[in-house]
Amino acid sequence: MGGRNPLARALPSLVVLPLRKVPGLHAVLELLFAEADHVRCGHRLLADRLFEVALIQLLRWLLDHPEDAGVRPGLIAGLSDPRLAQVLVRMHERPGLAWTLEQMAECAAMSRTSFATTFKAVVGQTPLDYLTDWRIALAQGRLREGRPIKQLSEELGYANASALSRVFTARVGKSPREWLATFISSGDAQTARGL
Questions:
Q1: Inter-CA distances, 20 with 66, 80, 81, 84, 136, Å
Q2: Is-contact 133 171, C-beta < 8 A?
Q3: Is the Cα torsion angle 27, 28, 31, 32 positive or negative in sign?
């Protein structure tokens, strides 16, 4: 999903911490490095899975210790707050729902004002802006898969393809068709260069 992915935007550029701070990480990394050192049947698959486990452990630590890791406002900071986490998880699970501020606040068990203020301070965007960016990130991923904009508009909570196209253009700076053409041509150029 690229730069619009809320997780990618929320990650610190660098995380430095002693291995002992993340329970189990040292053991997983030892297994990962052992697999990388010896070429055996299935080593690539196992190394990929071990890397995923290490990444999940690190992300969990970031959620539990956002201040220690220098996590800036965004998805990780929001998921670190139990009240906001409820809303963020549901928004990610059901992006096409016609979300209202009242529904979000109720989900977080907060007043509308408290929720809106807290969300903006912790996540760095208003709830509606966050939801819109999430929907556009999903649209970009699904457009790359060849899905039609009309189908996406229904899935992502827009009245029709024109409504999604207007929001997409406002956020991305290009219409979905223009963006996809640019993406495809840059992908073809990267493929030609062997990237």
A1: 17, 21, 24, 29, 39
A2: yes
A3: negative
Cβ 40 vs Cβ 31: under 8 Å: no
Per-residue pLDDT of the chain (195 residues; tens, 9 = 90+): 455 667 767 677 777 788 888 889 999 999 999 888 888 888 889 999 999 999 889 888 877 887 777 777 888 889 999 999 999 999 999 999 999 999 999 999 999 999 999 999 999 999 999 999 999 999 999 999 999 999 999 999 999 999 999 999 999 999 999 999 988 877 644 433 332
CA distance readout (Å), 177 to 80, 156, 173: 37, 17, 12
Q: How many CA atoms lie within 13 A of 126 on its CB side?
A: 8
CA 96 → CA 128, 139, 152, 155, 173, distances in Å? 13, 11, 9, 5, 22
CA distance 187 to 183: 6
